[in-house]
Design goal:
Elements lengths: L12 H6 L2 H5 L5 H6 L3 H15 L7 H15 L2 H13 L4 H5 L12 H14 L7 H10 L2 H24 L5 H10 L12
Helix pairs in contact: 4-10, 5-6, 5-8, 5-10, 6-11, 8-9, 8-10
Length: 196
């Protein structure tokens, strides 16, 4: 049961218009955004930040950004965001083999060395305490430029906010997110948990 109930999608017209972004990303407006509408300034700022972070300005693909979001959410234990991130990765063109083997990104042949460096970065930067180290930095700089690294940290930081929001809120999972969680993550122990 959610700490605070989501409001109707029509509650705030400006949020509703901005939330059209999520129709492409997820196929629905997330309950997290509908909960944020209790203070529309937060919902609008969040959506604008999300659009800025997920914009592609370098070689960091939309699919990789969503896989980084999954690794970040897995590190923090937020089941809600894990399901959302894997769904978005699927919708943004992650390879089927990557989706099926996301838990083995470090060793599975579906992931390139550049992707592994990005996903290791997401894992290290999401842990508490933070485990970023010179080895991860060196691997990042082997494959990515500084602007791309900033894009990546934007994703990690955005999901740091979302993981705290949704795990504390106990945000209810939507049907589409549940479907993706079951398809790609359930075999590894994923469950809805508190997000019912």
């Amino acid at each position: 049961m959610s700490l605070v109930d989501p409001l109707d999608a029509d509650h705030d017209a400006a949020t509703k218009k901005l939330a059209e972004f999520f129709n492409e990303t997820l196929g629905f407006c997330p309950n997290s955004v509908l909960t944020m509408q209790h203070r529309p300034a937060i919902s609008k700022a969040f959506i604008n930040l999300n659009m800025a972070v997920m914009a592609n300005e370098g070689r960091v693909s939309s699919a990789l950004k969503r896989m980084m979001a999954w690794v970040s959410s897995n590190a923090t234990g937020c089941r809600y965001c894990q399901a959302h991130a894997i769904r978005a990765a699927e919708r943004y063109g992650a390879e089927q083999e990557q989706l099926d083997n996301i838990w083995e990104y470090r060793t599975h042949s579906a992931f390139s060395e550049a992707e592994r460096a990005a996903l290791d970065f997401a894992l290290a930067a999401s842990q508490v305490p933070n485990t970023m180290n010179p080895k991860i930095k060196k691997a990042l700089y082997r494959h990515w430029d500084e602007g791309e690294i900033v894009e990546m940290l934007g994703v990690i930081s955005l999901f740091g906010f979302l993981n705290r929001w949704n795990d504390t809120m106990g945000t209810s999972l939507e049907d589409g997110a549940i479907e993706s969680g079951k398809q790609y993550l359930e075999k590894y122990g994923w469950e809805k948990g508190k997000h019912v």
